[in-house]
Amino acid sequence: MKQTLLLLTVIAFVLSGVVIVSAADTQTIAATVTFQQISLTASDGTVAYGVVAASGTSDTVALSDSQTITNTGNVAEDFDIKGMATTTGGTCTHWSILPSGLPAANEYGHSWSINAGTAWTRFSDTYSEFDSNKDALATSTLDLRITMPSASDCLAAQNVDVTVQASAH
């Protein structure tokens, strides 16, 4: 009787489609993540244009003072540049940066090149891209050129700083 009952129970499970399985297996998936780092360095980071006449120009190609911009982050980056009004540390009239045209009194022009001065692009006090999609540790050679005012109310040395910025490509 017990055998018949067991046989009927097995037949009932088989006919109902229920399958009894007793198995378990697990697997670990190793996962890592790296934080995105956006950064750059400018070497040597200093330009001395020297004494330049009214409406004259001076550039880092002629001065053998090209700047090397290096992507020190860990992703591809775009490089941007901007200028600013000058500073003197004194009470002189500061020069305004002029994005195009010939500078008048108390205005100056600032340009960049990444092809050793073959072509110059004027920049202003807002960021503009000068190189893009630079892989980690890739470099850009950046040259700068100043165009002096036609006249100046201040004969003291002017700081004509530029800012370079990196952003993710």
Largest sheet: 7 strands, mixed
Distinct helical segment count: 1
The level 1 CATH classification is Mainly Beta
What's the CATH architecture? Sandwich
State the order of secondary-structure elements, H for helix, E for strand. HEEEEEEEEEE
Number of structural units classed as domains: 1
Distance between the termini: 79 Å
Q: What structural category arises from helix and sheet content?
A: mainly beta
* Computed Rg: 33 Å
Helix amount: under 10%
* Percent of residues in β-strands: 25-35%
CATH structural fold name: Immunoglobulin-like
Count all strands and give the number. 10
Overall shape: it is rod-shaped
Query: Mean of residue pLDDT?
Result: 90
Catalogue the unreliable spans: none
Describe this structure in words.
It is rod-shaped, with a radius of gyration of 33 Å. The model has no long low-confidence stretch (mean pLDDT 90). It has one helix spanning 2-16, and strands spanning 40-43, 57-59, 67-71, 77-82, 96-97, 107-113, 121-123, 128-134, 139-147, 163-168. It is mainly beta and 169 residues long. It starts with a helix and ends with a strand. Helix content is 9%, strand content 31%. The chain has a single domain (37-45, 55-168), classed as Immunoglobulin-like (Sandwich). A hairpin with a 7-residue loop joins strand 6 (107-113) and strand 7 (121-123). The chain is built from one helix and ten strands; from the N terminus they run αββββββββββ. Strands 1, 2, 3, 5, 6, 7 and 9 form a seven-stranded mixed sheet that branches.
